[in-house]
Amino acid sequence: MTFKLRIAFISSSLMILCGSVFSTSLTPAYGVSVTTTTLNIALGYSTYDTNTMPFASYSVTTAGDYQFVAYYNTSQTVAIARRQLGSTTWSITNTSFTANDITDDHDMISIGIDGNGLLHMSWGMHNNSLKYTTSTASVLNNNSINFYSTRASYMPITAPSGGYTNEITYPQFYNIPGSSDLLFWYRVGGSGGGSGNGNLNLNRYSIVNGVGTWSQVKGPVLDGISSSVNAYPNTMVINNQGTYEISWTWRATSDYQTNSNICYAQSTNGTTWTSITGAAINSGSGAITTSSPNQTIVSIPEQSSLMNQTSMTNDLYGNPMITTYWAPGGNTDSGAARQYELVYYNGTSWQTSQITNRPREPKITDNSATHIREMGRPVVLSDQDNRTLVVVRYNEDRTTGTKDIFGTTDRNNIIVYYSTDNQHWSYLDLTPGTDMGTYEANYDPAQWKQNGVLDLFYQQVPSSSYTTVSLLEWNARSYFITNTIWDWAGGNASGAANSAANWKVNTYSVSHAPSGAGYNFRFGNESSANSVVNITSAGQMVGNITFTAGTSTTIQSTGGYSLTLDNSGSSSTISVAGNHTISAPVIMDNDVNVSGTGTLNLSGGISGDYALNILSGNLTATSIVVSTLTIGSGTGGSLSGDITAIPEPSALVLLAVGALFAAGYARLRRF
């Protein structure tokens, strides 16, 4: 049965209820709570930081419904931990596989899982013969994990001659989007091997009719042996179109101060490589060498403390981003100020952004691991809103007693820097009060891509005793959705809601327009004139809305599209100061609370099988189709307009009903 409701109940006592809904701080200071979960696995080797090297790609990975962590256990042999997603219980497979030298942190473990569910593993080498094996069966179940002791005839081909006994370092596995195949990326040393003399080769594991075989894509891709140098690669990217993207720095000797330049190349087949604009880098089937054209994207001279083997990813729009650190101005007699930096392609050119502002340090005069590990290698990520995140183990500087940006001394925690415009940076501390030693971050790429969850391999190193190997889990997607306010910045012109140019966060520009469950929109804070917001495409969604006084905002539909209120299972809040209109149809995916001192006109109507609660302020509407309509909550609230109310009048709750009808303001009639 349908009823028509005409109500004009005025309350003299109003209260704004938006204060507990939004967080206004987007630059959390030290001490701000960030919720993480630590999933302990077992004690692991920790005398050296061999377990936590970031150039393992990857030591943490997810396939299907299972997550895997590879590490050296207390027996100094390889262990594989597995859990079903959602569970906190790990099953552990302890193997008999050992490193050539576990005290050499180059001897890390890398794992990858192919489309048949086989786990591929390579480990324990620094200019040594290839160590490689696979599981005997799919690991995407709860069955025991078993490995072949060796697979000599099955190993990746590590040299053009077909041999596999070369001097191998830095094995890395990469899944290919939309494929069951794997890539294997590794260094082959020349005479003497290692720094200053090495090539980078690329193999592919192809599955045809359920059977997998290795073949060499190109050897070498990066040729350093011919000129007695070495190319140190950052993490590889294979984008959704299947394009391979690599970046690297050249090193002349074993001294990392001879690192120079940041280079980039891309390829659709792994053999022919070009710049991001398509300019040729290698000639025909030849390798990329130091003399190849069009490879350098940032010129950095030797003696700049440039770190090798860091991180690369793509942003939401497929543009590459690289993070590393170096000392702008060089490592000179007067000292150096090493800074974390972001190098990114903005669609037209390569740009550089300095993330930190570290003080000047004494000149680094040796090549010891102690100095190299003072700053953890950074990891770069991009989230669903095209926000850039850089994860580091942060130590402000190596001068005793110098305070860092958090106002404390000797701080050495896991820090996340983030930015919506790649220029203005804020930060979070994931491990307050925890000295992470020489730890460097290694994360699960599948969990990040699929869920926006940062799962970090987590272990305090080094230590004279064994320390616990864990997974540190942070739901970054949830954090930023909850704690970010998106301000409309479209000015007095009519602007599209799906245009990034019309939004800001914390007064800064953004590169992606917001939409989604739980998002917080604010209108009037960044505009001094009345605004018209156009919904020009399907799927526009928001969790909570704040309208501020001083300007008037109209949210309208161009093309019959609607605005959905969805706060991820919680009630949505619309806080109103001033006079505003939503003429687009409003769809409720959960209960909605309206509060404030102003008037909101829902001229496009509102509907959903949920409760609409007018807690304070005034709401006018042409159509309300809800399960329950509540007006007033002790502080008042008013509703006016010719309104279609469904279902029965019993769903209408007037908390001041005596005053309402005595004043003669309400009339309910059937039509």
Mean pLDDT: 86
Q: What assembly state would you assign to the polypeptide chains in this entry?
A: single chain
User: Helix/strand/pairing class, anyone?
Assistant: mainly beta
What's the total count of β strands? 51
> How large is the share of residues in beta strands?
35-45%
- Low-confidence parts lasting 5 or more residues at pLDDT below 50? 1-31, 397-409, 646-650, 654-671
> Main beta sheet: strand number and arrangement?
16 strands, mixed
Q: What gyration radius follows from the Cα positions, in whole Å?
A: 29 Å
Relative helix content: under 10%
Distance between the termini: 9 Å
Given the C-alpha coordinates, what overall shape results?
Answer: globular
Enumerate how many helices there are, as a single number.
Answer: 4
Could you characterize what this model shows?
The protein has 671 residues and is mainly β. The chain has a domain at 3-23 and 484-670. It contains 4 helices and 51 strands. The chain has a 16-stranded mixed beta sheet that branches. A 7-stranded parallel beta sheet has the order 31-35-38-41-44-46-48, with no helix packed on it. The radius of gyration is 29 Å and the shape is globular. The N and C termini lie close together (9 Å). 47% of the residues are buried.
